[in-house]
C-alpha cells in the first residue's frame, strides 16, 4: 500500500490518546499526514464522527483501512511497517513481547482515577490543581508496577520498561506526564523515577510535549 497514512488527532495539550498513535508513527519513522480536529470546538463529536466510526481520536486512515484506537493503531503499524526495516514497537523475545503487550493493555483499560482527576490538559496549566486522593492512590499503584517491572532480573538491557523502547512505554508516557505535572512523589520508586526521565528523552515523546507546551493552556 503506497498511500500516505492519515492520522486524525486532537490538540496536543489535550488528547493523550492521540499522543500515543502519533509517537508510535514518529518512532517508526513512517511519513504520515497529520490532521487536527480541535476537541474544544467539537464537543458534540460531529467532526470526529465524519472520520471515526467511534467518534473518537486518534483515528488512522490508510487507504481503505480505518483504525479508531491507539493500541490497534500500534498493532497495525507493527504489521504494516515491520522490523528490521522499521524500528520495532514490540520486543523480539516472546516472553518480553507478551509482557509489553499486557503492560500496554493495562494502561489501555485502567487507571480511571488518574485519567479523571489528572486530566492531560491540566498538565500544561501554569499552576496545576491539587491532586485528588483517589488519583494519588492510583499513582502509587502504577509507580509500584513500573518499579517491579524495571527491577526484574531477567529484563532485557535498556532504560525502558521492557529494555528497549516499546509500545509499553508509548502507552504509559502520557500517564508519566501526569505524574510529573502533578508532582507525585517518587522517592520510594527510584527505578520508576529514572524511567520517567528516560521516556521524555525519546525524540518522538519530546517533540509532542514540546509542541503541546506552545498551545494555550486551559482547564476546560
Overview of this protein structure:
The chain has 220 residues and is of the alpha+beta class. The protein has two domains: 6-80, Glutaredoxin; 94-213, Up-down Bundle (Glutathione S-transferase Yfyf (Class Pi), Chain A, domain 2), CATH 1.20.1050. It is built from nine helices and four strands. The protein has a four-stranded mixed beta sheet with strand order 2-1-3-4, with helices on one face. A hairpin with a 2-residue loop joins β3 and β4. α6 (133-151) packs across α8. The radius of gyration is 17 Å and the shape is globular. The mean pLDDT is 96.
What topology, given as strand order, has the largest sheet?
2-1-3-4
How far apart, in Å, are the first and last alpha carbons? 40 Å
Q: Name the CATH class of the largest domain.
A: Mainly Alpha
Mean pLDDT: 96
Q: Quick one: biggest sheet? A: 4 strands, mixed
Q: What is the CATH architecture term of the largest domain?
A: Up-down Bundle
Do you know the CATH topology of the largest domain?
Glutathione S-transferase Yfyf (Class Pi), Chain A, domain 2
**Would you identify the regions where 5 or more consecutive residues have pLDDT less than 50?**
none
Tally of structural domains: 2
Q: Given the C-alpha coordinates, what overall shape results?
A: globular
Q: What's the count of strands? A: 4
The helix tally amounts to 9
* Proportion of residues in helical segments: 40-55%
Order of helices and strands: EHEHEEHHHHHHH
Percentage of residues in strands = 5-15%
* Rg, alpha carbons: 17 Å
Amino acid at each position: 500500500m503506497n498511500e500516505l497514512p492519515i492520522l486524525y488527532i486532537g490538540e496536543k495539550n489535550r488528547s493523550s490518546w492521540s499522543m500515543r498513535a502519533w509517537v508510535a508513527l514518529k518512532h517508526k519513522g513512517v511519513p504520515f499526514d497529520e490532521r487536527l480536529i480541535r476537541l474544544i470546538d467539537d464537543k458534540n463529536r460531529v467532526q470526529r464522527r465524519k472520520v471515526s466510526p467511534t467518534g473518537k481520536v486518534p483515528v488512522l486512515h490508510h487507504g481503505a483501512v480505518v483504525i479508531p484506537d491507539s493500541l490497534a493503531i500500534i498493532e497495525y503499524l507493527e504489521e504494516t511497517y515491520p522490523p528490521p526495516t522499521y524500528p520495532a514497537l514490540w520486543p523480539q523475545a516472546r516472553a518480553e513481547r507478551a509482557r509489553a503487550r499486557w503492560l500496554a493493555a493495562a494502561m489501555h483499560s485502567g487507571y480511571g482515577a488518574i485519567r479523571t482527576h489528572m486530566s492531560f490538559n491540566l498538565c500544561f496549566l501554569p499552576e496545576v490543581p491539587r491532586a485528588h486522593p483517589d488519583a494519588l492512590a492510583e499513582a502509587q499503584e502504577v509507580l509500584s508496577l513500573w518499579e517491579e517491572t524495571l527491577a526484574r532480573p531477567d529484563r532485557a538491557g535498556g532504560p525502558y520498561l521492557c529494555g528497549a523502547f516499546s509500545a509499553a512505554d508509548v502507552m504509559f508516557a502520557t500517564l508519566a506526564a501526569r505524574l510529573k505535572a502533578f508532582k507525585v512523589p517518587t522517592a520510594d520508586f527510584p527505578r520508576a523515577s529514572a524511567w520517567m526521565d528516560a521516556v521524555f528523552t525519546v525524540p518522538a515523546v519530546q517533540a509532542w510535549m514540546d509542541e503541546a507546551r506552545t498551545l494555550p493552556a486551559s482547564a476546560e
